[in-house]
Each structure stands twice: as structure tokens, then as C-alpha cells.
Design goal:
mainly alpha, about 300 residues, about 70% helix, 10 helices
Length: about 300
């Protein structure tokens, strides 16, 4: 169980730390680090909320059947987080163009109240999502004894390693020119937001909230393609493939489950998951292009003197 706890904690903590790190680094790079305390407040409140969820399932609820209701909370968090992150992507794209890399000697970016609230709420939601997922994963591997999993050396070591990896990543990011930083983090956040969206779509199909355009002869949700042979999205899928075909997939399921949680990877996507994933990229690209055209038109419009 210790090794399982290590993998779970490392994966969930690293995802949250990377996203929170992007927000904090972004605020610092544009000279608005005074807002960082509110981001960390969101993280702290999310940790308290996650602890409350763990306590509720440990003390109040009994049996895994009672935990089924968490799925609807997870769907809501995934979709809201994707929307908030999209707003942040567009906001960062606008600021990145206005600053023009290192040309300006002083950053004149002004954060609106709405943008600050967006970052705080997103920091809360992304941490809460990872915290709740960790609680349910711990419940599964410990047979319901969540406290035992939390106190294991694997959970502590996973958290420490995630912090070290995230710190190393953002320490190097400080040396990256501001314009390059915005481009890299912008692309990074688009990938994460698309993954959150497609995870939400997939879960809604699993619980019957969303239908499909393509079904198998047996009436099940059909897949456009199947990449289990390359990288299964879960260790169980890895074992099942090895059992059924006598050969192991090229990439281990532990890698697949990381990319699933981090970027929304799916080994056998439905039509809706495929369209949601690639449609999101098209939508964000269209919104950024539209935003640039509006800004260009505003700059080129001549000012008529009275």
C-alpha cells in the first residue's frame, strides 16, 4: 500500500502544484505578487475542505456504495475548473501581447477584481479536485481506512517528491524570458483545460448523463480507436491486456494513469470525448484570434479631434 500511496500522492500533488505554480509565477513575473497570498489562501481552504471530505467518509459514511455521490461533485469541479482556466488563458494571452516581452521597462498590467477572484477560485477548485481524488484513491487501496493511507510513508514521500519536482521546474522558469514564459505556460494550460473538459465528458457518459452518437452492436458506448496496446490509461487495463493477448503494452499503465489525470488522456475515446478535446483547441484558438482582431481594430481606429 505504501508504494500505491506514493504514486497517488505524487501524481495528484504534482498536478495541483504545477497549476498553482503557473498562477503564482505569472503574478510574480508581471509585478503583481501581492495577490499571491490570496492564491495560497484558496489552496489552504481547499486542503481544509479535502480533509473534511476524508473525515466525513472515515467517520460518517460506511461502505463504498455511499461514495458514489462524489462523482457528481467531481463532474462539476472538472467543468468549472476548465471554464475558469480558459478565462485565465485568454487573460494571460492578452497581457503577454501587451507587455511585448522585455521591451517595456516596467509592467503596466492591472489585474481586475474579477481576474483575481478567478485565480483564487481556480486555485481552490484545482486543489480541492486533487484532494478529493486522493481521498477516494486512498479509500480504495486501504479498504476504507483512509487515515492509515494518509499516515503511510508513501503518502509523505510522494508529497515531498512532488514539491521538489515542481520547485525545480519553476526555478528554471525564472530564467526564461517573459514572452517565452507566456507562450509556454499558455500552451501548458490549454492542454490541462482540454484534459479537464474531456474527463468531465467521459464521466458523464459513464454515469449515463450524456449519450453517444456511436454505439457498439451490444449497445455500449463505442470507441473511435483503441490505444491500449500502446499505453493503457490504468494499471488494471495493462493487466487485462497482458492477460487477454499474452503480450504487454509498450508503456506501463502507471504512466497512462498519470497522463489521464494530468492531460485527460483516453486509450479508447468516444466520439464525444474526441470532439470535445479537439473542439476545445479550436474554440480557444478562435477566441484568441478574435481577441487579437478586436485589439488591432481598436489600435488602428483613428481618434477624431474636435
Amino acid at each position: 500500500m505504501d508504494f500505491q500511496a506514493f504514486l497517488i500522492t505524487f501524481r495528484e500533488a504534482l498536478e495541483a502544484l504545477l497549476i498553482i505554480g503557473v498562477i503564482v509565477t505569472y503574478l510574480t513575473r508581471i509585478g503583481e505578487s501581492k495577490w499571491n497570498k490570496w492564491v495560497w489562501l484558496g489552496v489552504f481552504l481547499a486542503l481544509l475542505s479535502s480533509y473534511g471530505v476524508a473525515l466525513a467518509f472515515q467517520v460518517v459514511l460506511t461502505g463504498f456504495a455511499a461514495m458514489a455521490s462524489h462523482i457528481y461533485l467531481k463532474i462539476g469541479i472538472l467543468l468549472v475548473s476548465s471554464a475558469l482556466l480558459t478565462h485565465m488563458i485568454l487573460f494571460m494571452a492578452k497581457q503577454g501581447r501587451d507587455m511585448r516581452g522585455e521591451v517595456q521597462s516596467k509592467v503596466a498590467a492591472i489585474l481586475t477584481t474579477g481576474s483575481v477572484i478567478n485565480m483564487l477560485v481556480h486555485a481552490y477548485l484545482i486543489t480541492l479536485r486533487e484532494g478529493i481524488e486522493t481521498v477516494f484513491f486512498f479509500a480504495a487501496i486501504s479498504g476504507g481506512d483512509i487515515e492509515q493511507a494518509i499516515r503511510s510513508w508513501g503518502a509523505l514521500l510522494g508529497l515531498v517528491v512532488a514539491i521538489v519536482v515542481a520547485w525545480t521546474f519553476f526555478r528554471g522558469a525564472r530564467k526564461v524570458p517573459l514572452g517565452t514564459f507566456f507562450k509556454i505556460t499558455g500552451a501548458f494550460l490549454v492542454l490541462i483545460a482540454a484534459g479537464l473538459l474531456v474527463q468531465g465528458v467521459g464521466i458523464m457518459q459513464d454515469v449515463g448523463m450524456l449519450g453517444t452518437l456511436y454505439k457498439t452492436p451490444g449497445g455500449q458506448i463505442g470507441a473511435l480507436y483503441d490505444l491500449t496496446w500502446l499505453m493503457p490509461e490504468h494499471p488494471q487495463d495493462y493487466e487485462h491486456y497482458l492477460r487477454d493477448y499474452g503480450v504487454a503494452p509498450l508503456i506501463d499503465g502507471q504512466v497512462g494513469i498519470f497522463f489521464k489525470a494530468f492531460l485527460g488522456y483516453t486509450q479508447d475515446p468516444s466520439v464525444e470525448e474526441f470532439l470535445a478535446y479537439w473542439g476545445y483547441y479550436f474554440l480557444v484558438f478562435a477566441l484568441i484570434v478574435r481577441q487579437r482582431k478586436k485589439e488591432s481594430a481598436a489600435v488602428e481606429t483613428p481618434i477624431i479631434q474636435p
